[in-house]
């Protein structure tokens, strides 16, 4: 499975244990959590006894239990002898059903119980679902040696707070394995497009797809091999029947429930500035309270929508939050201001026209920087310094004398032994040419960074150009003294 070998291996190892396992899987909507489990136990480990139940959004307890009863019938063809009014009743019914199925078939392999979208089952944790599940695990599953209970959800914050970190919760420190699923990185995305979607993509086209769809498996699966990038965008986003027409709103409502308005407000603000905002700046500009912002930023970060970029040399204060999710950047720029009628009236090659506009390269440059930040491990690997990587940061210096010699660096990569890369990112449709003026800008950045950004003045500073097709070896390139020229193909080889 593309990009999921590690996760697949965790499930495989759990199958081979001579004890029961309680596994937590979380990751944003559409990332492939359900697909991973179904592939494992419905295509690979088919000798396991398998049961699956999925929580539904916006249903009350009686409706959730009704769906649970239906799921038991779908898998075991057994119905309860009485009405199940509580989750305790429901798990007693499941326990008896499974025990009977094991006895009838003399089943000796693993029994896998997959509870999908757990946060939706009991959002406020008031209906007793987790308590009943905890009792079911502690008194029945754990004492056996052949059970795997898998708890899965898109709301990472809920999974962490209610299952993994709640010291008073019924499942605290009961989880034996945690699988945190992330979107594909850029390299895996290209591999998926080539092998699964069967698209004939080059490196630049792979980045174009990534800047729009990110590494979200389900989004990428909607692509068709006979379509161009622009055609796929028109079909999926700019059509009322498109699979991703209202995906942005659906993602935030399903993950953050009644709080999604504040989360979207923060995303809208962060998308306006590529260098991001500090928590204090977000508070000033949105009017939201400090606790609300802190909680929202934690949740947005856990779900992979934002990332905190620390300032080099000041990692306690001054963290700037930037949007690194492709869907958020794309939607906020190109879809947010369009209403339903606007979408309905779109005809012809809409995205192609946008790509030809003067706004597109500005947005693409912003999106490309987010791609690089999201894939800094690929960059460090290309440099041969992945094992020495300490982190990626922003850095800025304001000249108090207003001499114009201030500097801002969007990404500084730090390695062991006082080695630093100043990384300049340029998304270009050809070999990039460094002008004399830009070369002066680069020289100033390096000078100010050495003079004001480093405690150890003997640090090794590299000026790196990371561009689509590399840089032209002209006078500006020599003048700036570029140390390393990295192209897209270097990250994707």
Secondary structure tally, helices: 23
Evaluate the radius of gyration.
25 Å
- Look at the structure and name the CATH superfamily of the largest domain: Winged helix-like DNA-binding domain superfamily/Winged helix DNA-binding domain
Q: Quote the beta fraction.
A: 15-25%
Binned, the helix content reads 40-55%
Number of domains: 3
CATH topology of the largest domain: Arc Repressor Mutant, subunit A
Overall form? elongated
Taking all residues together, what is the mean pLDDT? 93
Largest sheet: 5 strands, parallel
Low-confidence stretches: none
Quick gist of this model?
The protein is of the alpha/beta class and 493 residues long. 47% of the residues lie in helices and 16% in strands.
Task: Note the topology.
Layout: H1 5-16, E1 21-26, H2 33-44, E2 49-54, H3 61-76, H4 87-105, E3 111-116, H5 118-121, H6 129-141, E4 147-153, H7 156-164, E5 177-180, H8 186-195, H9 203-213, H10 217-221, H11 229-236, H12 247-256, H13 260-270, E6 277-278, H14 279-286, H15 290-302, E7 306-309, E8 320-323, H16 326-334, H17 340-344, H18 350-355, H19 359-374, H20 376-382, E9 389-397, E10 407-415, E11 419-426, H21 436-452, E12 460-467, H22 475-480, E13 484-487, H23 488-492
Parallel strand pairs: 1-4, 1-5, 2-3, 3-4, 11-12, 12-13
Antiparallel strand pairs: 6-8, 7-8, 9-10, 10-11
Overall description:
The chain has 493 residues and is of the alpha/beta class. The chain folds into 3 domains: 5-180, Rossmann fold (3-Layer(aba) Sandwich), CATH 3.40.50; 187-371, Winged helix-like DNA-binding domain superfamily/Winged helix DNA-binding domain (Arc Repressor Mutant, subunit A, Orthogonal Bundle); 375-492, Trna Endonuclease, Chain: A, domain 1. The protein contains 23 helices and 13 strands. A 5-stranded parallel sheet has the order 2-3-4-1-5. The protein has a 5-stranded mixed sheet with strand order 9-10-11-12-13. Helix 22 (475-480) links the parallel strand 12 and strand 13. The longest helix has 19 residues, at 87-105. The radius of gyration is 25 Å and the shape is elongated. The relative contact order is 0.08.
